[in-house]
TrEMBL record:
One of its GO terms (molecular function) is galactosyltransferase activity. The chain crosses the membrane at residues 12-34. Belongs to the glycosyltransferase 7 family. InterPro entries: Galactosyl_T (IPR003859), Galactosyl_T_C (IPR027791), Galactosyl_T_N (IPR027995), Nucleotide-diphossugar_trans (IPR029044). GO terms for biological process: carbohydrate metabolic process. This is Beta-1,4-galactosyltransferase. PANTHER family: BETA-1,4-GALACTOSYLTRANSFERASE (PTHR19300), BETA-1,4-GALACTOSYLTRANSFERASE 7 (PTHR19300:SF30).
Length: 324
């Protein structure tokens, strides 16, 4: 037999060996699958991977806290139809107790994200002990983005510059930012001076730094810039980046005058909606604007009327001055 094997070509011996190994593996796998006692698996006490065996961060997310997701909103129903069910599934998987609150701006002034968040906070303050300032067009995808209860003085910026699909500058604090409700009050919320799109989160970043808050962010997730999906269509919904009157000058520095304690608004009505199985509280509000203090709240088409009124006021002042 030994002589016969020596006479066989080496490649044939190798082929037979490989086929034998392959057949053995199939039989062994079949036995393991249908008879767990082969490896003593019937009595295996394997970890179940519930939250007790995951991470401290995940434990916090499951603890006795409630999150209010404050969504500043105007004419973004397509995005909302996707946002609400997505967040329901995402947060239910994390066992987060949450409430989605859409704050809808009905008035004709320019969009004011910060004032809408301030108003939404005041309307829901008694219901939640932490808040998420959340854009409706930014959907979290990575399971490592945990909507956990933040530590005191340590806001959690989930949409961090190294993860956000668009904004990558180091002082960026927009998109999705979580903090304790008491911390939001300590900062007096956000400035109400930012009409139009952008920069209110930059001012809020300065507020947090001045208060010596430590802004925490997720680590270098394996998903990187694909950690979120940004669903904004710039062609359908162009941003209002315009700066009118002396807006650039007046919004360049830290606002020490306005915030959640000074926001002016009126609630028109509150609707409780169900969007594809996701409960949403929809608050319709009218923001108020002190046109003399922030004339840039006006839409462009209203500027001419405002300027004429301003001229009339100045004429009356001059007449009064002459009489005195």
């Amino acid at each position: 037999m030994a002589k016969l094997i020596r006479r066989l070509p080496i490649f044939l011996i190798l082929k037979v060996g490989i086929l034998s190994t392959f057949l053995f593996a199939i039989i062994w796998g079949f036995l393991i699958t249908f008879d767990k006692d082969v490896l003593g698996m019937s009595s295996c006490k394997c970890p179940t991977h519930d939250y007790e065996t995951i991470s401290d961060t995940r434990k916090k997310a499951l603890s006795n806290h409630r999150l209010c997701i404050l969504v500043p909103f105007r004419e973004r129903f397509e995005e909302l139809m996707e946002f609400a069910p997505h967040m329901k599934e995402f947060l239910n998987n994390q066992h987060v107790d949450y409430k989605i609150v859409v704050v809808n701006q009905l008035d004709k002034y320019r969009f004011n994200r910060a004032s809408l968040i301030n108003a939404g906070f005041l309307e829901t303050r008694s219901e939640c002990d932490y808040v998420a300032m959340h854009d409706v067009d930014l959907l979290p995808l990575s399971n490592e983005l945990v909507y956990a209860f933040p530590e005191e003085g340590q806001p959690l910026h989930l949409a961090a510059p190294h993860l956000h699909p668009i904004y990558h500058y180091k002082n960026y604090a927009g998109g999705i930012l979580l903090m304790q409700s008491s911390d939001f009050e300590k900062l007096n919320g956000l400035s109400n001076k930012y009409w139009g799109w952008g920069r209110e989160d930059d001012e809020f970043f300065v507020r947090m730094k001045k208060a010596k808050f430590t802004i925490t962010r997720p680590g270098n997730l394996t998903t990187g810039y694909k950690s979120f999906r940004h669903v904004h269509d710039r062609r359908k919904r162009p941003r209002d980046y315009n700066r009118y009157f002396n807006q650039s000058e007046k919004t360049r520095r830290l606002d020490r005058e306005t915030g959640v304690t000074t926001v002016k608004y009126a609630v028109d009505n509150v609707k409780e909606l169900i969007i594809d199985g996701a409960p949403v509280t929809f608050i319709n509000i009218y923001l108020e604007c002190n046109v003399d203090a922030t004339p840039w709240c006006l839409q462009l088409e209203d500027h001419e009327f405002y300027m004429k009124g301003l001229e009339e006021k100045n004429k009356l002042k001059d007449i009064k001055t002459e009489k005195t």
